[in-house]
């Protein structure tokens, strides 16, 4: 959990939702520096204010949240973006991750879960709503069509220990929880997880889990 103040931008086209998010995020280490009502405003404020974290609604008029996320990444702006939505859409999740989202949460998230998401993303960790991720992974296991199917084989195979780590990553366990299961320290698990992500050619744990399911590495 980062020790310094976290600057944050809220982007949602509904004023009541923005007010609710601002209230939920009232914490000593979080400073809401701006609000946007559409993707264009979110992009402009992200350019101008350089918030560490942007909470970005997906469905907004004009430029939507995913288009704004794509623009943030294309311009190489340093802000990390958490996508926020009401819709349990596999397509939304996979598109967001492919565009470089650092997080993906649903609007029925609790205050504690939202704060944990912001802290994790500000600290450089990607985070996706765990229950929704499990739903998506199950749908991929059952053969639901999704973008990016038909992955290339790994250039370097995973070791037995790396497969153990990957299976638990797919289940959504944290480094500490994986360590508890396997009798390893959280730091050791983190090192293995980074190697697994590198071999899979992914940037975060969620992308690794999705790719592992698509490739049939994990059931």
Structure characterization notes:
The relative contact order is 0.11. The protein has a six-stranded parallel beta sheet, with helices on both faces. The chain is globular. It contains ten helices and six strands, in the order βαβαβαβαβαβααααα. It is an alpha/beta fold and 219 residues long. The protein folds into two domains: 6-138, Response regulator (Rossmann fold, 3-Layer(aba) Sandwich); 152-215, Arc Repressor Mutant, subunit A.
Instruction: State the total count of DSSP E strands.
Output: 6
Question: Please, what is the oligomeric state?
Answer: single chain
CATH topology of the largest domain: Rossmann fold
Outline: globular
Please mark out the parts with pLDDT under 50 across 5 or more consecutive residues, or reply none: 144-149
| Number of discrete domains | 2
The assigned structural class equals: alpha/beta
The succession of helices and strands, N to C, reads: EHEHEHEHEHEHHHHH
Give me the side-by-side strand order of the main sheet: 2-1-3-4-5-6
Strand content: 5-15%
Q: Provide the CATH superfamily of the largest domain.
A: Response regulator
The percent of residues in helical segments reads 40-55%
Tally of individual helices? 10
What integer is the average pLDDT? 84
CATH architecture of the largest domain: 3-Layer(aba) Sandwich
Q: What is the alpha-carbon Rg in Å? A: 17 Å
Distance between the termini: 32 Å
